Amino acid sequence: IMVVLIPLSQAVLESAKTSKSERSQKKISEFFHYSTCPVCHGTRLRPELLQQTAGELNIAEVTELSLHELPTWKKQVLATLPSEMTKMAQAIFTEFDDDLRPLLELGLDYLTLARNGNSLSTGELQRIQLARTLRTETTGVLYVLDEPSIGLHPDNIQGLLNVFKQLVAQGNSLVVVDHNVDIIKAADHIIEIGPGSGKQGGHILATGTPKELAANKDSLIGPYLSGKAKLNARKVCPLTTKKMTLAISDHYNLHDVKVELPLKRLTAVTGFSGAGKTSLILDSLVPAIKAKAKGEVLPAQVSELESPIKDVVSVDASPVGKSTRSTTATYTSIMDNLRKLFATVPLAKERHYTPSYFSYNNKQGACPECGGTGMVTLDIQYLPDMEQTCPVCMGKRYRPEIQEVKWRGYSIVDILALDVAQALTVFKDEPKILRELELLREVGLDYLHLGESTPSLSGGEAQRLKLVKHLDHKQETTLFVFDEPTIGLHPLDVKVLLKVMQKLIDQGATIITITHDLNLIANADNILDLGPRGGKHGGKIVFSGTLSKLQKHPTSLTAKALADYLMRFK
Known about the structure:
- The protein is α/β, with parallel strands linked by helices.
- 36% of the residues lie in helices and 16% in strands.
- It is globular, with a radius of gyration of 28 Å.
- The chain starts with 7 loop residues before the first helix and ends with a helix.
């Protein structure tokens, strides 16, 4: 036996290069000390290159400017250059302006040139790619854009539409999947699919121009195009004196900021991307409340927190469950009650089947071939693994003998194949199951199948499913935080979400939602507007108060966009 001794430093370096799991990387990082490079001071450039300046700034200083500041820097460069270089500089800056203009129109003025790509949100990346596409001047290309308005302030929608028009003018075609009314209204042709979701959808409701759909009685989006839709989905409540107070000393672009948020009310936190909404709520308020509840030290940036809130529920669009084993029935208590119900069937008692036999996660009930997943994975050498329906259970997950047990003519497989709407009739005499089904209907998910895989749900569906667990309890000391909850939601779905929020408020909950959606903002009890723009030009409280007062605000860009929107529905 030969033993090879490898120096620890070499082993760690090799592991750092080859390890891919987050857990391993975290362990390996304990052996490293990270600090700013003493030679380049974090600029990544040779020191001699930093001696060259343009407009009195070196290249590292220019990359730290926000896109909003670049036009001013450009003027400074042209004003200080020798006359013999002016012609060349103007030619370079013509191309510079062509690159910069779409980025500014798309509301990315708060980004710096040095911003790390991996720190950008999905919406920011999509808009940067869109701007780059415009610069390539393609022709004859079909572009398909999925929800390009995500994370975009209403004031920037016109800039996005300008980019669309330029792409079309270059000879391209655009197909845009979006629910934003302004984008739909600006389309040359609309295809509306519905009328509902799941089995209730899949039909072409209407096609034509915005004007034609506005006059089409079968169109669900038509009333929002014609201005006949009713925006009020809940009764806006007057603000109370009961509030929580948060003060931030210094965090990103937030400096000495203090806010008061009403309890047992719906607050919409608005403002441009990069205005400080996430820094204020998700990075400061949420961890501060959690720390206070545990008796721990508040986050360093939080200088003051006065709040009776003890629990925080963050509701985002992340997938529900990590594998296909998670279904609508298992995420709720429906599956547990189903297993107990089937165990009471005479045949189950005769065969000594306990509730565990009716779970596809236990070997007693799961198909032995696929282990209860309904799928088998084929390992193909040199190619990615391939999944196919289990040839034994045909995707039903259960052993054949388990499927022989019937409750009122239904096997456990038959029950999981039902959607919520169908199940409501089947379980009308089973109170425990019926209550969960009614809650799913209340959040607008009555089209989901009980056996539907939850990781495959859309962001909006995932958010509403997460709320089901909280709708049946008192929430006097609970704060619900929604981050862009209307992403991917039709205006009618937003109404359903608002009704769910109202139910939580009726139970004593306090709700804060970070949003750009004008339909949601119009239904908020309190509005906290940050800005006036993003990055260095944000981080300030532009407005805090009710909708009626916001509409009279002279400088808020949110107020301007909201006023224009509400005017259509009078």
